[in-house]
Design brief:
By secondary structure, this protein is of the alpha/beta class. It has one domain: Rossmann fold (3-Layer(aba) Sandwich). Helix 1 links the parallel strand 1 and strand 2. Helix 1 crosses helix 7, helix 3 packs parallel to helix 4 and helix 4 packs parallel to helix 5. The longest helix is centred in the middle third of the chain and has 28 residues.
Length: about 250
């Protein structure tokens, strides 16, 4: 496609898992402040296309969708390449995509390992590696969406907790490896949205979660998106993980 001279003036962000929920809110927030956004999705094509159409109506040529299974090794480099080729720059990678479902220890299998480690830990590493050269050109940054359960494991979710703990260490490791040209930080959400699918909880369990949160309420996807934007804009913060959890991580 043809690129106009003004292309280079607008920062570009790739957000994984951006079709719905927190990822879509991050994409909208970044777009609102002038980013062009690459909306990655796996299954939620209709949601992704609707989001891109919404953003392109607000500002033409400002959003695209790219599909990839982040657990497929052969899909990661093509995703990185396509994201870079669209506007010939990349300023921000947000590793938001995540699988989340229970894996009681007696029921764990290799498919669970591949899905949970793959989406939450391996894909962020591989994408960061592939995109580092272009991020370096822009003095850009990476923001990983971690989890408060990277510090304290969630009962019946050992693989998810392990994967997010790995992502927390990856955040700090990449901050060292990619300094001084690329900043790498994380956001650790607490209770933001009730889980869906296999992870859906009954109302009593949801209430118990809030009872163990100092602010006694859910946060909002905007709370996460605003923190991602803060970390993208603050030029002297790297290697840090900010808990946006209503105090859940320090509840005793």
């Amino acid at each position: 496609m043809a690129h106009s001279p003004t292309d280079s003036s607008q920062p570009v962000a790739l957000i994984t898992g951006a079709a719905r929920r927190i990822g879509a809110t991050i994409a909208r927030r970044l777009h609102q402040v002038g980013y062009r956004v690459v909306i990655h999705y796996q299954h939620s094509e209709q949601d992704a296309q609707q989001l891109a159409a919404e953003l392109n109506q607000q500002r033409p040529d400002s959003a695209i969708c790219l599909q990839a299974d982040l657990c497929d090794n052969d899909a990661l480099d093509p995703l990185a390449l396509a994201a870079q080729q669209q506007w010939r720059r990349l300023d921000l990678l947000v590793n938001n995509a995540s699988s989340f479902y229970p894996t009681p220890i007696a029921q764990i299998n290799e498919a669970d390992w591949n899905a949970l480690i793959g989406s939450n830990l391996k894909a962020p590493l591989w994408l960061s590696k592939a995109l580092a050269p272009m991020l370096r050109q822009q003095q850009g940054s990476i923001v990983n969406i971690v989890d408060v359960h990277a510090q304290r494991p969630l009962q019946n979710y050992p693989l998810y907790s392990i994967a997010k703990a790995g992502l927390a260490m990856l955040t700090q490791s990449l901050a060292k490896e990619l300094a001084p040209h690329i900043r790498v930080n994380g956001v650790a959400p607490g209770p933001i949205l009730p889980p869906e699918g296999a992870a859906k909880r009954d109302p009593a369990t949801e209430q118990l979660t809030l009872d163990k949160t100092l602010l006694r309420r859910y946060g909002t996807p905007d709370d996460i998106a605003d923190t991602v934007l803060f970390l993208a804009q603050q030029s002297f913060i790297t290697g840090q993980i900010i808990a946006v959890d209503g105090g859940k991580s320090i509840y005793s």
